[in-house]
Hints:
Layout: H1 7-18, H2 34-49, E1 53-56, E2 62-66, E3 75-81, H3 95-109, E4 118-123, H4 136-142, H5 160-167, E5 184-192, H6 197-201, E6 205-211, E7 213-222, E8 226-227, H7 239-254, E9 261-263, E10 267-270, E11 276-277, E12 280-289, H8 292-312, E13 316-325, E14 328-329, H9 332-343, E15 351-354, H10 359-363, E16 369-374, H11 390-405
Parallel strand pairs: 3-4, 3-5, 5-16, 6-15
Antiparallel strand pairs: 1-2, 2-4, 6-14, 6-16, 7-12, 7-13, 8-11, 9-12, 10-12
Helix pairs in contact: 1-11, 2-3, 3-11, 7-8, 9-11
The chain binds glyoxylic acid and manganese (II) ion (2 copies).
Amino acid sequence: MTAFRFADTMLARLDELGRISESPDFLLRTFLTPEQKQAHEKVAGWMREAGMTVHHDAAGNVVGRYEGSQADAPVLMLGSHLDTVRNAGKYDGMLGVIAPIACVADLDRRGKRLDHAIEVVGFVNEEGTRFGAPMTGSRAIAGTFDPAMLETKDRNGVSMGEAYRAFGLDPAKIGSCARRKGSVAAFMELHIEQGPVLENEGLALGVVTAISGARRHRVEITGLAGHAGTVPMGQRQDALVAAAEIVTFIERRCTGTPTLVGTVGMMEALPGAMNVIPGMTRFSIDIRAGDDATRDAAIADVLREIEAVCARRNLTFTVTELYNSTATPCHPALMDAVEAAIRAQGLPTMRLPSGAGHDAATLAPLCPIGMMFMRCTRGISHNPLEAVLPEDVEVATAALLHFIENFRAPVQ
Ligand code: GLV
Ligand code: MN
Ligand code: MN
């Protein structure tokens, strides 16, 4: 039996959170659900045990605070998200909440206070699984929450605003979560890499240089439902085959350009019967790149293609943008500090960009941001096969603690 200083407790906690799910068959924990409440209460308990005071803010985030010796000094904020994708792994997001709690618990055991307070945030709704609009927890704190997001609806037609009220929160108060610029010295997020680069390089930890920008759209194409046996092939207004053409166009357009990626991850065909020509289809488009111009050029081409395919097939369509984040660099001083923290563990490291989105990017308008990546097995993520090595969890947490104890606020 190994006896890690941090990893045994942390892995047990990650397993516990991984069992709080809306489905008995796989991990699914979405925004404004009883499972969110259960997970946040568990995390709040661990925060209190670590010596923090806890509050649940108006956006639904759980926030733990470990006071520093100077009450008004800008805080060092750490954290990640507690929501999941459908059929998720149990480390995406959760690691970045559990690790800083373990660091604060260690400081508390040693009776150590820093000059400034430390806050650990478990963000709601980073993934956007339920309503499509992601990052609303971190947007609320950054002061960039757009009330129009409250109109987005889940699969059952429940709007985010209605879900807030049913959860017992008043969405009109979300604006009160916004932090004043200058009140947060920096935000640091530890996250699994969700890709294979560190593993291929034989490295446990990496320094993130920048977070790719992403845009997400929802497309609805309307044709004419009809009898699968009677309407001749040349006379159909089949919304699903149009969508199929668009999906393959996205794959072609996004292949071969470094960092550019395009995904259609959700699609529905209605009315959804074997013997009915699909009269309507709805699907999502997620396009990302390391620079915004590359991403936007691809999106412009995809939108032109949607128009052309629908015109040729006598279909109508609507496109709604759900999310738009720009490519975000990490602060150079925080990259250096993360690198020093990793090297202090006696480990080599490298710098790498993040293709995945993170709450850190959303917080960039508020304060300098930094990220540390931890290797995950075969780079697999957004999948129940997501796995980590206990020794990586241990060393990542030790590096995070080094970062926290040696933190100097970067020039903003
Ligand atoms: C979050 O996981 C994202 O990058 O979509
Ligand atoms: Mn994710
Ligand atoms: Mn994540």
